[in-house]
From TrEMBL:
<dbReference type="InterPro" id="IPR000246">
    <property type="entry name" value="Peptidase_T2"/>
</dbReference>
<dbReference type="InterPro" id="IPR029055">
    <property type="entry name" value="Ntn_hydrolases_N"/>
</dbReference>
<protein>
    <submittedName>
        <fullName>N(4)-(Beta-N-acetylglucosaminyl)-L-asparaginase</fullName>
    </submittedName>
</protein>
<dbReference type="Pfam" id="PF01112">
    <property type="entry name" value="Asparaginase_2"/>
</dbReference>
Length: 318
């Protein structure tokens, strides 16, 4: 049986590199998703996930996460959690419970403590500097917008036994209102997976992406017989167009999807990077550049692009 992983943004490559070997050796999809996302949560330079994530308006890192098992549809999710070292670990643990699968804030943190999950101060010195700088800009008359910073890591895995899993993790919008939760922990909106069909994960402006459960609809389209690219295209782009017509504005929408044979596809209305790895392909970063609605050019990231990315994320915050 084939094995494969796909994740959102360049940061997903670190996770795929860490977890793909376990799938090659017969490991299970759920373990691979958890390992991959924990790798990303632990890396301090990815400013929108885990340690070093983007703080809210009060300078506090509040995180959302979810995990779903495609074999039995068990899912777990958390919203607005603080000082949890690895929200994906907590989400997966919740997915294994019969009830209380979705917890927020203090309740989620209490559950983590009861199960001895590691605690960690998630506000890094870099993130604090970034927050201080933004506070100063606002005091001087600047404006906050939903695009001051946000990105979710969404990760799909297929193992040799045919099982699939999906996970998400994010610190959400930079300078968001305390308690704000986006689409990432919402089943159907931020993620969905069915091992007999396939799965999808989302990243973008949660307030717009939660307006319709497109991840679920992508999987439904595959179940009805569409190939993965057709399923993504026919689900995502018509809604983006409809939302623009009815709402007058559309935020960022980006999706990765994979069927139960390891075939993958993406849809996006912004420049978007993603990482893929399987039994034939070492972990590779691709860049998708949208043209007219529904038309996307996808190319492997050049070394120059990768070098520029690393320099940018590791640059000193002044």
């Amino acid at each position: 049986m084939k094995y494969a992983m796909i994740g959102t943004w360049r940061m997903a490559q670190d996770g795929v590199v860490a977890a793909l070997p376990s799938l090659a050796q017969g490991g299970i999809a759920g373990d691979a998703v958890e390992q991959a996302i924990m790798t990303i949560e632990d890396y301090p330079y990815f400013k929108s996930v885990g340690y070093g994530g983007l703080p809210n308006e009060h300078g506090i890192v509040e995180m959302d996460s979810a995990f779903m098992n495609g074999d039995n549809f068990q899912l777990g999710a958390v919203g607005g959690v603080r000082n949890i070292a690895n929200p994906i670990k907590l989400s997966r643990l919740l997915s294994q419970q019969r009830v209380n699968n979705v917890l927020v804030g203090a309740g989620a943190e209490e559950f983590a403590d009861e199960h001895l999950l590691p605690r960690k101060g998630m506000l890094s010195a870099r993130a604090k500097k970034r927050w201080d700088k933004k506070v100063d800009q606002v005091k001087q008359g600047g404006r906050l917008t939903p695009y001051d910073g946000h990105d979710t890591v969404g990760m799909l895995a297929l193992d040799r036994s045919g099982s699939m899993a999906v996970g998400t993790s994010t610190s959400g919008l930079f300078m968001k209102h305390a308690g704000r939760v986006g689409d990432s922990p919402l089943a159907g909106n931020g993620f969905y997976v069915d091992s007999q069909v396939g799965g999808a994960a989302a990243t973008g402006l949660g307030e717009d992406m939660m307006k319709r459960p497109l991840c679920f609809e992508i999987v439904q389209a595959m179940e009805r017989g569409a190939n993965v690219q057709t399923a993504v295209d026919q689900t995502v782009y018509p809604f983006i167009e409809k939302l623009g017509q009815r709402n007058g504005q559309v935020g960022e929408f980006s999706y990765v999807a994979m069927d139960n044979q390891g075939n993958y596809a993406i849809a996006t209305n912004v420049e978007f990077s993603f990482a893929v790895g399987n039994e034939y392909l070492k972990p590779t970063v691709y860049v998708a550049i949208p043209g007219e609605l529904g038309k996307v050019e996808i190319k492997p990231a050049t070394q120059a692009w990768l070098d520029a990315y690393l320099a940018r994320v590791q640059a000193e915050v002044k």
